[in-house]
Structures are given as structure tokens and as C-alpha cells.
């Protein structure tokens, strides 16, 4: 009898763990998986005036409309261009910076530099964009002030389709470069220091040590972060565009996210916007998968 | 690295100076815009316009701040955002730790559940499905839309779970023999012992909630409920639109709100600057990355 009671008690304590898990499962079901149900909007002729279930299926009609729309084509093109430049400059920057920080011997100097370099990561685009706007303003911005002193005509950076993307990339590097070093620094600190000592004794130069010890030591981190970056290729920063963009640069600054927001929530074309959003998710999935495959082909571990 | 230190030759020393110099330069370039913003917010409009390049204020004034206070709009949004940050951080930290503890224990279907949770980091239904979901839950235009969907950040959940997984089992076993149930173990043993990771993740949550922007743009139409980030974004992009008009209408003399805008920026930046010294402790000690494997 006592034995059974003990077992029952044990079972009860064992099952208690489900009280901890149920809220988490509910959270993911409601906020992450339930929205997937509404993806059908992309394949239906949905109007706000009638329930979703009563809307007729239209197949890929919205996707056809989407890809024929010059607005969407432009947004897609802008997204790819901005993303490409952000990757081109924004991806190597933290690697270089981490390698440089790793070389620092002076602990206090290293700590202070890190604190300064990480700061922009924690600030919102509204703050950073406001500061960028201030620096590059045509009337009284610092940059134009300096240009003026040097005898140049002021340039309206934020309103010029020619300069706007550079400004996006530059400010993005400012925000992300420092914080981006953190995983590389962690990987660098895990490299066995005896490797360096042995290489030094064998007469390896600094560059040789960098090439044969340091880079292989962080290559896994580089590959993993690259795959993750590729997965976010079409996420080029809604908030940044909202802050820094304006009517004049719309032709070069409109991205998929701003398109979805404008068409879906402001113009109420839910189906079209859902189709655009779904396209984005699918591209991200395919890109991650492809990048992971390529990484494995060249002998890395990948993430999947 | 230590062996190298003993053998610093001339070349190495030069490299140290060069490398340190470049890093110092990068730091100055990155920090300068913030310094300039803060300093300029204390300038008179005339002083600012005469030379924005100044590193110090000659005649500091609170004029810009007085105007911000007189207008008062920003405080409505600061209040909302402050509430989001406080309530959001408390709720999210508790729910995340609570869930992470449960998920760190063996249970039927645990690998499937973990897989489904990790998948959500890569799969998003998109803006409109989210909107429809919130609408069906009655969350549109509600304060709760800032908090509920962000109660668990999957990345932090995984970090916390791996911290709990590394916990010495003996402690919990001993408590269990003493008759503690899971709840008591969680509240009296697990939580107090994980203070460092809780503090770190709590601060990261606080920063994220303070920077809430998209929820405000997408799901809130009530202007009283808008976050300060959206308020500031509107302020900045309005003036940039305005500048566009001015630029095309040829060099008219400046609108008077330059330093006022800067003062607004400083007010939004201030809370982050205030918690930043505490944040530093965590990323320098590497507490976050230590728990992330791979």
C-alpha cells in the first residue's frame, strides 16, 4: 500500500513539469503557429467585409498580380541591392574588427573600445536615424558644413537617390559592426594558445599565424553567421527605411517590408501583401537551405 | 598569447601602436555623433547654426528642453514606452525562465517540442497573418499587443535552457528528497542561483522593449498608445520631408526646430545610456555567448 502511494506521489511530482511546459506550448501555438493559418489569405479573394472561410480560393492569382506590379518589382530589386551592399560591407567589417580587437594587449583599452563599439547596437533606428539625419542634413549638417569649408556645394544626401543607399549601408555598419564582433571574439578566445606558441617557435610570421591558426579557428563561426545572414537577405531593415526614407528617395528606398506595410495595412490589400510576405519567407528558407548545402559541400558543419 | 608577450620585438611594438591607433580612431568616429548630438541639444539655435562642428557649448542653454517640456507630447509616449519596458521585462523574464526550466527537464515529446520552438526562429507567417491573428485575439489597439507576443524570445529561451541543463543535478535531487516540489525548486533554488543570467537577459529584454517600434506602427492606431520610438521616427522623417520641400524651394532660412529635435533624441537615448554601464558587465564577461554553443 505504502509502495503504491509512493509511486502515485512520484508520478504527480513527475507530471508537475507539464505545468511548466504548457504555457510555453500555448505561447508558441498562439503567437507563432496560429498565424500560419492565415497564410491562406494569399490564395483567396479575401475582403475584410466577409469571413476568411467564406472567401473563394483563387490559386496563384495574387502572386501573378504581385510579380506584374512595377511597384513590387522595384521593391524587390531595391531589397536585393541594399541587402547585397549591406552584406558586402557589413559582413566582413566585424571579422576585421574582431581580429584587430583580439590583437590588443592593453586590457583596459580593449574593454573601453568594446564598450564604445557595442553602443550603437542598443539604440533604436529612430535615435540613430535622427543622428544620421542631423549629420547629413543639407542646411546645417556637419558633413555639409565641412564640405562647405572645403569649398564644395552642399549635397542633399538624404534626398538624393544617388547617395541614399550608401547612407543606409554606412549607418548600418555603424550600428552593427561592433556588436557583430562578439561571436568572433568568443571563437577567437577559444583558440588554443599553445598553437600560437608552437608556430612562433617554428618561426611563423604574424601573417602566417593569422592564416594558418586564427582564420581556421573562426571559420566555423564565419560560415554559420554567413548562412544566417543569407537567410535574412530580404530583411533589410524596415525601421531604418522608415526613419531615413522620404518621398524623394522612395524609388530607391522602397523595400519588400515597406511595400507589404503600405499595400497591406494602409491600402487594405491583405491578399497581395500576404502573398508578398509569403514569397519573402520562402526565399529565406530556400536561401538558408542552399547556403547550408554549399557550406557542407566545401567541408563545413553547416547549421541544419 | 602570453608567450608572445615576452618576446615583443620592435615590429610587434609598432604593430601594437598602429592597431591600437586605428581602433581608437574607429571609436572616436563612432562616438562623435552621439557627443555632438548631446552637446548641440544644449546650444542656442543661433550657436548651432553658426557652427555645428563645435565640441563644446559656449553658452549652454536649456531652451530646447524647455520647448520640449512646454510641448509635452513626448512625455505621453515616454510614459507608454516606460510602461512597456517595465511590464514587458518583468513578464518576459519570468515566462522565459519558467518555460526554460520546464523545457530543460525530460518529458514525453521534448525533442519534437524543441524542434517546433527552434523552427519559429526561421519561419514567419508575415505581417498580415500576424495582424489577422492579433485581430482575432482582440489585441489590436491594446497595450497587451506590446507584451504578449514578446513574452518569449526564442533565442533567450534557448540560452536559459542550456544554462539550466548545466545546473548540477545534485542540488535539485537533494531538495526533492527533502520534499520540495518542482515549483519550490524553481523558485527557491533555480531562480536565485541563476541571478547573473537573469540579470543579463533581463537587461537585453529591457532594451528591446524600450526600442519597441514596429508593434506601434502596425497594430496601434490610438495616438495616445504610440511608443516614443515611433513618435521620434515621425519627428525625424517629417523634418526630412520638410527639408526636401525646403531644398527644392531654394535656400530659405532654417526652421527653428533643429536643437529641439536633438533634445528629443537625447531624451529617448537617455534610458539606454543609463543602463549601459550595467549591460557592459555582461558582454565583457561573455555570459551570453558562453551559453550559446556552435
From TrEMBL, chain A:
CDD domains linked: TM_PBP2
Subcellular location: Cell membrane
Keyword 4Fe-4S: no
Protein keywords: Cell membrane, Membrane, Transmembrane, Transmembrane helix, Transport
First-listed, main subcellular location of the protein, grouped into a coarse class: membrane
ABC transmembrane type-1 domain boundaries: 76-291
Example of a GO biological process term: transmembrane transport
Pfam family of the protein (one): BPD_transp_1
InterPro entries in UniProt: MetI-like, MetI-like_sf, UgpAE/MalFG_permease
Chain ranges passing through the membrane: 12-31, 84-104, 116-136, 177-198, 210-234, 272-291
Topological type in the membrane: Multi-pass membrane protein
Recorded GO CC terms: plasma membrane
PANTHER family: BLL4140 PROTEIN
Family stated for the protein in its record: Belongs to the binding-protein-dependent transport system permease family.
Protein name listed in UniProt: Sugar ABC transporter permease
Species this chain originates from: Paenibacillus sabuli
Source species taxonomy: Bacteria, Bacillati, Bacillota, Bacilli, Bacillales
TrEMBL record, chain B:
SUPFAM superfamilies tied to this protein: MetI-like (SSF161098)
Ranges annotated as spanning the membrane: 15-35, 74-95, 107-127, 139-159, 185-210, 262-279
Membrane-topology descriptor: Multi-pass membrane protein
Localization of this protein: Cell membrane
Coiled coil regions, renumbered to chain: none
GO biological process: transmembrane transport
Keyword Transmembrane attached: yes
Domain ABC transmembrane type-1 residues, every copy: 78-278
Keyword Cell membrane: yes
GO cellular component, one term: plasma membrane
UniProt keywords, alphabetically: Cell membrane, Membrane, Transmembrane, Transmembrane helix, Transport
Superkingdom to which the source organism belongs: Bacteria
PROSITE patterns: ABC_TM1
InterPro entries reported for this sequence: MetI-like, MetI-like_sf
Predominant place of localization: membrane
Family: Belongs to the binding-protein-dependent transport system permease family.
Protein name per its UniProtKB record: Carbohydrate ABC transporter permease
Lineage per the UniProt record: Bacteria, Bacillati, Bacillota, Bacilli, Bacillales
Amino acid at each position: 500500500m505504502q509502495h503504491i502511494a509512493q509511486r502515485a506521489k512520484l508520478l504527480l511530482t513527475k507530471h508537475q513539469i507539464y505545468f511548466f511546459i504548457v504555457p510555453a506550448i500555448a505561447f508558441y501555438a498562439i503567437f507563432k503557429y496560429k498565424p500560419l493559418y492565415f497564410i491562406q489569405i494569399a490564395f483567396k479573394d479575401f475582403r475584410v467585409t466577409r469571413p476568411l472561410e467564406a472567401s473563394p480560393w483563387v490559386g496563384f492569382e495574387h502572386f501573378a498580380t504581385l510579380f506584374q506590379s512595377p511597384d513590387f518589382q522595384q521593391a524587390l530589386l531595391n531589397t536585393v541591392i541594399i541587402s547585397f551592399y549591406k552584406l558586402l560591407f557589413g559582413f566582413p567589417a566585424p571579422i576585421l574588427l574582431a581580429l584587430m580587437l583580439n590583437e590588443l594587449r592593453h586590457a583596459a583599452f580593449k574593454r573601453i573600445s568594446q564598450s564604445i563599439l557595442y553602443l550603437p547596437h542598443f539604440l533604436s533606428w529612430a535615435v540613430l536615424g535622427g543622428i544620421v539625419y542631423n549629420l547629413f542634413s543639407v542646411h546645417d549638417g556637419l558633413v555639409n558644413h565641412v564640405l562647405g569649408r572645403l569649398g564644395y556645394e552642399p549635397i542633399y544626401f538624404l534626398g538624393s537617390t544617388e547617395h541614399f543607399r550608401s547612407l543606409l549601408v554606412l549607418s548600418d555598419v555603424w550600428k552593427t559592426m561592433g556588436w557583430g564582433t562578439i561571436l568572433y571574439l568568443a571563437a577567437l578566445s577559444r583558440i588554443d594558445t599553445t598553437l600560437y606558441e608552437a608556430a612562433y617557435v617554428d618561426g611563423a610570421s604574424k601573417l602566417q599565424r593569422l592564416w594558418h591558426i586564427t582564420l581556421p579557428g573562426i571559420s566555423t563561426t564565419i560560415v554559420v553567421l554567413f548562412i544566417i545572414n543569407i537567410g535574412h537577405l530580404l530583411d533589410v531593415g524596415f525601421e531604418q527605411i522608415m526613419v531615413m526614407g522620404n518621398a524623394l528617395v522612395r524609388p530607391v528606398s522602397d523595400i519588400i517590408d515597406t511595400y507589404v506595410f503600405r499595400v497591406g495595412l494602409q491600402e487594405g490589400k491583405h491578399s497581395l501583401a500576404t502573398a508578398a510576405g509569403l514569397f519573402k519567407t520562402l526565399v529565406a528558407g530556400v536561401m538558408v537551405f542552399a547556403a547550408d548545402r554549399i557550406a557542407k559541400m566545401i567541408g563545413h558543419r553547416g547549421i541544419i | 598569447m602570453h608567450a608572445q608577450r615576452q618576446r615583443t620585438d620592435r615590429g610587434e611594438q609598432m604593430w601594437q601602436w598602429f592597431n591600437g591607433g586605428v581602433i581608437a580612431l574607429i571609436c572616436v568616429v563612432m562616438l562623435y555623433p552621439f557627443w555632438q548630438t548631446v552637446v548641440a541639444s544644449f546650444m542656442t539655435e543661433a550657436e548651432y547654426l553658426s557652427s555645428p562642428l563645435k565640441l563644446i557649448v559656449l553658452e549652454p542653454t536649456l531652451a530646447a528642453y524647455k520647448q520640449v517640456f512646454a510641448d509635452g507630447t513626448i512625455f505621453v509616449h515616454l510614459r507608454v514606452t516606460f510602461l512597456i519596458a517595465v511590464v514587458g521585462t518583468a513578464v518576459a523574464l519570468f515566462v522565459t525562465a519558467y518555460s526554460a526550466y520546464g523545457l530543460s527537464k525530460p518529458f514525453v515529446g521534448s525533442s519534437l517540442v524543441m524542434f517546433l520552438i527552434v523552427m519559429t526562429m526561421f519561419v514567419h507567417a508575415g505581417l498580415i497573418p500576424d495582424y489577422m491573428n492579433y485581430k482575432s485575439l482582440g489585441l489590436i489597439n491594446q497595450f497587451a499587443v506590446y507584451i504578449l507576443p514578446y513574452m518569449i524570445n526564442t533565442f533567450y529561451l534557448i540560452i536559459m535552457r542550456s544554462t539550466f541543463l548545466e545546473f548540477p543535478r545534485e542540488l535539485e535531487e537533494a531538495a526533492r528528497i527533502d520534499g520540495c516540489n518542482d515549483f519550490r525548486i524553481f523558485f527557491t533554488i533555480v531562480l536565485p542561483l541563476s541571478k547573473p543570467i537573469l540579470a543579463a537577459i533581463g537587461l537585453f529584454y529591457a532594451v528591446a522593449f524600450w526600442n519597441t517600434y514596429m508593434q506601434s506602427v502596425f497594430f496601434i492606431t490610438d495616438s495616445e498608445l504610440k511608443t516614443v520610438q515611433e513618435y521620434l521616427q515621425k519627428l525625424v522623417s517629417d523634418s526630412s520631408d520638410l527639408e526636401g520641400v525646403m531644398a527644392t524651394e531654394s535656400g530659405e532660412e532654417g526652421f527653428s526646430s533643429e536643437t529641439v529635435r536633438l533634445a528629443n533624441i537625447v531624451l529617448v537615448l537617455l534610458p539606454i545610456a543609463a543602463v549601459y554601464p550595467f549591460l557592459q558587465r555582461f558582454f565583457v564577461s561573455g555570459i551570453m555567448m558562453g551559453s550559446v554553443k556552435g
